# Entry
Amino acid sequence: MIQVENLVKRYGNHTAVDHLSFTVEKGQIYGFLGPNGAGKSTTMNMMTGYIAASSGTVTINGYDILKEPIKAKQCIGYLPEIPPLYTDMTVREYLMFVAELKKIPKKERTEHVEEIVNKIQLNEVENRLIKNLSKGYKQRVGLAQALIGYPEVIILDEPMVGLDPKQIIEMRDLIKGLAKEHTVILSSHILSEVSVVCDHIMIISEGKLVASGSPEELQKMMRVKVELEVTVLGDKVQAEEVLKAMGQIETYIFEQSEEANGIKIRIISKDNIDIRKELSVALSGAGLPILSMNRVEKTLEDIFLELTDTQAEENEDIINDEQEDTDDDSNL
# Structure
């Protein structure tokens, strides 16, 4: 459906998008996840033809966005971070105007707009001026204009920014509903949006793709060690003797427990072995009752922070190395 190959965007000496490549398959919800300034909006603007790439290609349904822009853009509905609304129009007037711009046949426009008004649940406000609508309804109107013409691909840039919790839930439901008939791509820096809505996640940092996969695949990829958090009643010295005697344990750390007379231990096993059964038997046999035992796994937030921090550190090292080389040259 969408093929992005070696996409680059430079602004002077700054590289906003750095040789980005990925493929978007039909009928799924894809999420661009990354911190502010990671290159998400720039990538989407290039994918939709709003700005030209410095190099690389974007192919939409077989059409190159630069070589065949009209055919490629006919396959795309786009909601920018700031919706392109004419606020002195009513909702219906605006959507009819967009339908005309997208060359929907005149005899079909009224019915087409009516379908989308019903789909996006704008019936209550369709005759109100857009400038008098709440932020949530303005976002819905922006989503409705992206749907005009029923394009195969819907691209949404930060669709939930500025919405209250109720509006966010409503927007999530609308986006999930779109996936039944469209391929959806959305960008966000809010982890909860992406993990709840998207089937596939691409994490971008410093303009580079640092990870790609389903939420489950990303968690599996980053699960390097199996970690247990155990709270027992008893003596710390006695607990440490039990842990030392177990050959499957790589490291352990004692922490402050909230339980009276409790000992909290964080344990990492060797070779990703699940040692919960053996550990329970060993601790109970030593007279150390177990109050709780939890398997600790990396959340999407942990993965996001680890990957983006690592990328930022690598880029900083490169910049420092280049600066040192420049300083050395200047001293020659």
